[in-house]
Amino acid sequence: MNFNALHHQHAPLLIANVWDASSALAAQDAGYLALGTSSAAIASMLGYDDGEAVSFEELFFIVTRIRAVTMLPLSVDLEAGYSETTRGVIENIQRLATLGVVGINLEDSRVIRGERYAEAVSTFALKLEDVRDACPDMFLNIRTDAFLMNHAQALDETLRRGQCYQAHGADGFFVPGVTQDEDIKTLVREVGLPLNVMCMPDLADFDALAASGVRRISMGNFVHSAIQTQLKDLLFTIQNAQSFAGVFSHESHR
Known about the structure:
By secondary structure, this protein is α/β, with parallel strands linked by helices. The chain has helices at about 20-30, 40-45, 55-70, 85-100, 120-135, 155-165, 180-190, 205-210, 220-240; strands at about 15, 15-20, 35, 75, 105, 110, 115-120, 140-145, 170-175, 195-200, 215-220.
């Protein structure tokens, strides 16, 4: 089943968000059908802040290593495109395509000095149209952040953007931060694109999301963050106990 078809099944596509070769292999071993990179997790792993502080060349290297260990369909979080120009964004996508990448996330906002700013809908729509024309085989999952940015009219703004992006070539619609069932159902009903939601503390379980019409579920960087917390706990345990016993405690659970 190709990557696009995975977004049109009865059950939502649960995509494993990975940040390196080892996390990609772990997801493959766990039976996931597709992978997506997490920009925030990759940035954290490399010691950067999120928001394109990582260079495209560094991102390209990470994607190369992921593709070296697994042939699962891979979508890359390209943030705002890693370029100030549409031509540059297209060239970056085309380079990823040479590695076998089948999808990207592209955001309609940009982080500037730690603050996120949304692009004008019309400006982003023209960029999207150009990207669509130049990259006809790439699954374009378009992210909009009105809910994450606490927009006063988050649902209306998201609907306006989603409907515009559908008309300009998007394949999927990624709305991180949306959690309320009625908002999700409205987006599914009013925007004719597979809806992608993201892990949040108050997000419904997967069966409920499926019943609401969600077609893709992402993890964001939350799995990576949870693992980092476990790592810190383990390192503290070794230091405080002056023993490696805690390192091997997982053996009894295999």
